[in-house]
Automatic annotation (TrEMBL):
Superkingdom assignment: Bacteria
UniProt KW Membrane keyword: no
Entry keyword Oxidoreductase: yes
Organism: Streptomyces typhae
Recorded family membership: Belongs to the acyl-CoA dehydrogenase family.
Every Acyl-CoA dehydrogenase/oxidase C-terminal domain range: 253-324
GO molecular function, one term: acyl-CoA dehydrogenase activity
Classification via InterPro entries: Acyl-CoA_Oxase/DH_mid-dom_sf (IPR046373), AcylCo_DH-like_C (IPR036250), AcylCo_DH/oxidase_C (IPR009075), AcylCoA_DH/ox_N (IPR013786), AcylCoA_DH/ox_N_sf (IPR037069), AcylCoA_DH/oxidase_NM_dom_sf (IPR009100)
PANTHER family registered for this protein in UniProt: ACYL-COA DEHYDROGENASE (PTHR43884), ACYL-COA DEHYDROGENASE FADE28 (PTHR43884:SF20)
Disordered, as annotated region: 323-354
Name of the featured protein: Acyl-CoA dehydrogenase
SUPFAM superfamilies attached to this UniProt entry: Acyl-CoA dehydrogenase C-terminal domain-like, Acyl-CoA dehydrogenase NM domain-like
Keywords annotated in UniProt: FAD, Flavoprotein, Oxidoreductase
């Protein structure tokens, strides 16, 4: 099965790279993250309204393009190359998939078309530093991360036909600017504690939002204080806490986007380092001609290509085995211009947990590429102001938010049953007979 990019996917890559090259250089990034919003509004208008990135993966009935995970991963890779500070991840990678998976038809019709059109930004708020756990990337049972009804986090209280929320959430991506916030809160007291999701308007009375200082300024975040804030329940109030389950279902999709972003950032950091070692001279010759330098950069290259292959495979698995193009399924369920999934509809092992493992590969490759970039840029590379540190901060920041790498790998191994666990037979990441060998710059999986 050939997994080469389609013409439409190549066009997505070219268009995005051109737009970002014009408006999102390193100096542009540094200037944008120091604005009150934390991103360049003009760039976001181009990406959201002209190019339609927030609606790339949303169905056409909500004004989206209807593309699949592979197309979204390609877009995320290009954004990662430029370290573009935008609310896309929070809006289209976290909030929109949760609404699509768990919201009522009215909630979907009210908000998803506006997200697709670039008229509404949204984010996801979960208690404490539990985002990776809530998304099911590093373990934890359904709702365990929310405190189980104990003190802390956000509490919800039914009031008439609505709900009231009170509590505090730290580290909310783009929480200071998002116009719609999906808040995970627990209710029911200790005996019937369950985690539910609620919609809160960014301008709701009683909602206090304070932007936080972050190591990685390209992912701005905020602290949200909810002081008896009115909220709307997302989906249905079920005894098992449907909100927690909804987050777990979209976690793998979010991990695919994050993995692709990390791959793009690592690839660009490596390319800049290679260009530098070809020019910088020591002992009368470019340092790139020394064998030790070649070996170290070759190791980084292998790590980046392996991470890219893992990210593309995870995107393919998230699309249930289809080689995805931008066409919507035709009547009868076939997708125009795309390879069809094999009988059974899922990769062997269900593709379960593949996104988290791909994210581990991506974060590891980015960390190595960023570290070598600092080393090989010499004395100037160690200064905090050098562009290489943008990639160092992204690597460290993403590990703090969505990792760390060893926990991502351990959880993927547990779900795969590699060490006698209860994972799926054959392993969550088991290779499917006939699965695509992703051809990227000579590397394959």
């Amino acid at each position: 099965m050939d997994a080469a990019c389609t013409a439409e996917q190549d066009e997505i890559r070219r268009t995005l790279r051109a737009a970002l090259a014009e408006r999102c250089g390193p100096d542009d990034v540094k200037a944008a993250v120091r604005t009150p919003a934390g991103y360049d509004g003009a760039l976001w208008a181009v990406l959201a309204k002209r190019l339609g990135l927030p609606g790339l993966a949303l169905p056409e009935r909500y004004g989206g393009v209807g593309c699949g995970p592979v197309d979204s991963a390609l877009a995320a890779e290009e954004l990662g190359r430029a370290l573009a500070p935008t609310p896309l991840l929070a809006t289209a990678g976290l909030a929109a998939p949760v609404l699509l998976a768990h919201g009522t038809p009215r909630q979907q019709a009210d908000h998803l078309p506006r997200i697709a059109a670039g008229d509404l930004t949204a984010t996801l708020a979960v208690p404490g530093a539990a985002l990776a756990t809530a998304l099911g990337l590093v373990g934890g049972g359904p709702g365990d991360w929310a405190g189980g009804g104990l003190a802390g986090g956000v509490q919800a209280r039914a009031e008439g036909a609505g709900w009231r929320l009170y509590g505090q959430v730290d580290q909310v991506l783009d929480g200071h600017t998002a116009e719609l916030v999906l808040v995970a809160a627990h209710t029911g007291g200790y005996a019937r504690s369950r985690t539910l999701l609620f919609l809160v308007r960014g301008c709701a009375p009683g909602l206090v939002r304070v932007r936080q200082t972050a190591l990685d300024e390209t992912r701005p975040r905020a602290r949200l204080e909810l002081r008896d804030v009115g909220a709307e329940l997302v989906g249905e109030d079920t005894a098992d806490g449907g909100g927690a389950a909804a987050l777990g279902r979209v976690g793998d999709q979010a991990a695919v986007l994050l993995a692709a972003e990390a791959v793009g950032a690592a690839d660009h950091a490596l390319a800049r380092t290679v260009a530098h070692v070809k020019e910088r001279e020591q002992f009368g010759r470019p340092i790139g001609s020394f064998q030790a330098v070649k070996h170290r950069l070759a190791d980084v290259y292998v790590a980046v290509q392996a991470a890219r292959s893992a990210a593309y495979y995870a995107a393919w698995a998230a699309g249930a085995g289809r080689q995805e193009g931008c066409g919507q399924p035709e009547e009868g369920g076939r997708q125009e211009g795309c390879g069809q999934q094999e009988e059974g509809g899922q990769p062997e092992g269900g593709g379960e947990g593949v996104g988290g493992l791909a994210l581990a590969h991506g974060l590891d490759a980015l960390r190595r590429a960023a570290a070598e970039a600092v080393q090989f840029h010499g004395g100037i590379g160690f200064t905090w102001e050098h562009d290489a540190h943008l990639y160092v901060k992204r690597a460290a920041g993403d590990e703090l938010l969505f990792g760390p790498v060893h926990r991502l790998r351990a959880h993927a191994a547990e779900r795969a049953g590699l060490f006698g666990g209860t994972g799926s037979p054959g392993g969550a990441g088991a290779r499917k007979r006939g699965a695509p060998a992703v051809r990227v710059a000579g590397a394959g999986v």
